[in-house]
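Structure tokens please, single chain.
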Amino acid sequence: MSRRTYQRVPEAVRRDDLIAATLDCVASFGIAGATVREIAARAGVTGGLIRHYFDSKDQMLQAAYRQLMTDMCAPSHAIAREEGKAQDCLRRLILANLTPPIADARTISLWAAFIGHIPINPDLASIHREHYLAFLESLDLLIVRCFQELGRLMDAKQSRRLAVAINGLIDGLWLEGSLIDDMFDTGEIAGMALQSIEHMLELTPGALTAEAGS
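Here you go.
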């Protein structure tokens, strides 16, 4: 186990280090095994110093889950708000969510460790809901833009339903591709997602997949 030696660093950096150490511990030992003592050792600090930044282990776990979800969702939010052809942005958003570092064993193990606590922990549930809704908003934005570029009408209810469905498709393939990646060729999972989303949005065949496969 890698343990950091104590150094004086700015408070914001120290807090980020503690969040990173919390995620490392959760990835290695699960939430139950990510004790304050273990996190302190991993970060190279004392338990007393941890209490300067966080009132409890629960508060540390909340900060860690928020960071995990931010890291997973931030690329999509940025892509959705870029200028350029909406179909190109949608393609890149899908690929970003089905390739490393979002689609890898460590990320999915962290997500799985936290997700089991969502139904019983209102604070984690609130963080999850916040990021889920923000991700849907990014998808919704790109779907509406795609239809606008094609001169097709799209009401808010329809675009929202499509965003929910596409998110579900991405989630399912993300899980499958990350857990049993040896069963698929490189890019196969992403290709299936792109082709399926073309069909869901009634885009011209190849609108999303042609460039991805070139």
